[in-house]
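Throughout our pipeline, every protein is held as a single compact record rather than as scattered files. The record that follows is passed on verbatim for readers who wish to inspect the format.
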Amino acid sequence: MARQTVNGAFTLEIPEGFQAISRSELEQAGGGGEDRWGVRDPQQHRVILIAWKKYPALLSILADLKTMAKRNEQILSRKYAGAGYQARGFFSGDAGEIRTEGYRFTYQQGDVRNAAENSLLKCGKLFYSITCIGREENTEKDREVFRKVLESLETL
């Protein structure tokens, strides 16, 4: 395993086999590559994407992660409606010492059915979205790998 730093805010322990996703690939995946970070394991078909955003100070103080997770899920469900999006429920958890709120979902990508979970957290003045994606048939095995990555989070 190798420890990786994300946006100068925290580090994560990334398992062997994962490779960095280039800035240009992150940009193609949706939005600017400057506010995103990602790794993938091409052999096991796993991806971890992290995006961050700064909200206005007042909203940042008042923001409730559960509400943000629900709103985020609604937006994503509309965006992926044509890809067979199916909500799989909400959850609360931890990423290291930071509380998270998130949701699970599945969607179709070509001939492959993917299972994903999106964990939202606040670190400093930024909100982070950590999305873990794998093949639906490997959900349980992948979930354990992703859980260990999230548990390894340490703030800087």
